Amino acid sequence: MSHDLHESLRDNVRILGDSLGRTIADDLGPGFVDRIETIRSFAKRGRQGEEGSQRALIEYLRKLPDRDLLPVTRAFNQFLNLANIAEQHYRARFRRVEDYKPGSQPVLSELLERARGEGHSPRKLVETLSGMRVELVLTAHPTEVIRRTLIQKYDAIDDCLTAIESSGDYPERGARAQGRLEELISQAWHTDEIRHERPTPVDEAKWGFAVIENSLWQAVPDFHRDLDNLLLETAGERLPLDAAPIRFASWMGGDRDGNPNVTAKVTREVLLLGRWMAADLYLRDLEQLKAELSMWKANSALKAEVGDVAEPYRELIKRLLARVEATRDWAKAELDGGSYKGGPIIETRDQLYAPLLACYRSLCDVGLDTIANGVLLDTLRRVAVFGVTLTKLDLRQEASRHAQVMEELTHGLGLGHYRDWDEAQRQEFLLTELASRRPLIPRRWECSAESREVIDTFRVIASEHREALGTYIISMAGEPSDVLAVALLMKEVGGTVTLPIAPLFETLDDLDHAGEVIDHLLALPGYRALAGDSQEVMIGYSDSAKDAGQLAAAWAQYRAQETLVAVCDRHGVDLTLFHGRGGTVGRGGGPAHAAILSQPPGSVNGSLRVTEQGEMIRFKFGQPEIALRSMEIYACAVLEASLLPPPAPRPEWREEMDRLAEVAHGAYVGVVREDPDFVPYFRSVTPEGALGRLPLGSRPTKRRQDGGVETLRAIPWIFAWTQIRLMLPAWLGSGEAFSQRLEDEGGLEVLREMRDQWPFFGTYLDMLEMLLAKADVGIAAYYEHRLVDEPALKALGERLRTRFGRLHEALLEVLDQQELLEKTPLIRQAIEVRNPYIDPLHGLQAELLQRNRDADGAISADLSRALMVTMAGIAAGLRNTG
């Protein structure tokens, strides 16, 4: 591929940019557009190294009158969003584009051929794909900065680009599409890009359901159809009808960890919304099937089912339609707080699946396979993946909240203080109660509001069908009693519904002890009787990186997974690892294929759960073509990791990683935890203080409203450093580790050997390289110049930039490159194209932060909005918010 951006991508960026320019000129006059062009020109010349241009840019921005600050920030923000649309469109059109490293993005057909070459039989390929359980868990973590109303306009703009490109022989179609494009860009320009109120958890869930309706509803059957055809070609077999290698779960409306806005009532409402939405979508499918399945030939089973009628398929579909319509009416009545008085509803997946399967089998039996494998098969595939709830809803709560319930119970019943008991006493109590037949919780128990909310959540679980719910996740889990407490509450309040319980290990210490906790847990007969032969464990990426630094955390995550695989193997238990990854490198993000293949051998054994967060949901699943490619990448990676796992690391590599992680951890902690100037520097130089005003999600930005960095959530922690382009959490400590090793004799050779032969280490270096390419210490230095007064803080900033420079040199030496992203020119050029539009936003943000501080937070509404727009624009430009 050419080192230049592909011609069609460049053309689309120009088309969208020109249209935005005309829109702004119509609104604010041609003179204002000239001002924007002047700013962009200064930024571009500055990036090209022209002396004085960066200083001229800053001076120009500082002289802008207050009335111009908001429209200027909006113009650059809108352009960056339009550039993202053009890039998404390009990736959707050219699905085989290497968006990461040449040769690294998988193609399923090639992988199946490779697996055959490695001795795997066609039957084994079909079995592995059929039995695969990849669950993508959509989470509402507050990193999606773009409003839903704008996302809808952007999707429509994408459609216009498709229409323009395909209008070659029909110029009038192209003209119509161009007119519609101008209208949509004008609509976007005249729409407030910042929400005025935080979304509620229910709003977030609706956003998640909208992704299913607008994209995944189409992409899922397309993915299965492609897979089906591929297996027919490669293995001579079809994918079984009920196979669903990739499924979807959700945390939206179920994740109550540190979010007081997610209540039992909210969870119940979101579950009902899922039922309503699913019924509404299936009604559209069934109406189409009723229109199309007009055949009269049917097998005896179908005739026996519907009686002697002229159009047996229509008759069965008509009956199913009535039940699905009743289901929608029931869900609506429940949501509205009324009472439902209609007919029987669909309660389970099988009630929807069985009649459709009867139609399918009948069509095949009478020789109408072509019809059976058309629209009807697509609907069957949707039912297999989405069920009657669209997603399975996970529930997540902090371990301390369950301990509080136990404390209030034991104290109230005169049994002592649960909080004062050691781990052995807690386990003994919980296991005894799990085995007891009498209830533990008194019928009229007086407890705190917090404990009542926990109990009410388990009541919601008791009232639901098992297939509506996913996993119960315990955050900040550290001991077996954390899991047993949830098991006991589920038994006491959850009725007959028992969900898998996944402890989430997220600090460095918790990751180091994860194996022994699970070992102890699985050795308890009382727990094993409940859990059976499967265990889910969640690995936290965000908090471990914030706690220990990226390098030490990545190695701890790897070691924890290795230990967990060995422990579960020894107990004869199937382990499913749930990866709590974010969008950024600092939170475990990065290309899915590389990330999965860099896991320890045996940790991906046909099953995997992984979070898809915030804006990454839109980037990966927001359009059918992109979603199709994302699902293929996941299927490829899990298939490859299961059938052709990477080699285990050599003992000397493990020792090397132990040393590197130890040095990196010490360096990271020495700054973040032990330098008294660090927290004041962080608060002074980043927009962290203003971030709370950006109404991104329903969750507070802090776990507690007092205290230092440790109280800050991982997302705003990363977001704040990203905004000033220092990206500190993802690299701090690595420079010391690598530089020290490169000074040793033979150090370089070992690091290069690990880079080439160990996917874990190679992927880590790739992530670091991409991150350093997006970072810019010059911009970080400008924020410091504008916002930091104290000499001690300035000195710390200087030291941090020196550390960055040291890492930059060391990384290039290990990679044997002259510059970053040498081997991924597309990514490098995408960053370079955006920089002249992001740089002015940085200058404006620093200026606005200073004005805000000078005014003690009381700047005008327009300037406050301009500050929030700079945050949104920088996030859009870097495509990694938190």
Automatic annotation (TrEMBL):
Keywords: Carbon dioxide fixation, Lyase, Magnesium. Gene3D superfamilies: Phosphoenolpyruvate/pyruvate domain. The keyword Protein biosynthesis does not apply. Its EC number is 4.1.1.31. This is Phosphoenolpyruvate carboxylase. Belongs to the PEPCase type 1 family. It catalyses: oxaloacetate + phosphate = phosphoenolpyruvate + hydrogencarbonate. NCBIfam families: PRK00009.1 (NF000584). It comes from Halomonas rhizosphaerae. Homotetramer. The active site is at H141, K546. Its cofactor is Mg(2+). The keyword Lyase applies. InterPro entries: PEP_COase, PEP_COase_bac/pln-type, PEP_COase_Lys_AS, PEPCASE_His_AS, Pyrv/PenolPyrv_kinase-like_dom. GO terms for molecular function: phosphoenolpyruvate carboxylase activity. It comes from the Bacteria. Forms oxaloacetate, a four-carbon dicarboxylic acid source for the tricarboxylic acid cycle.
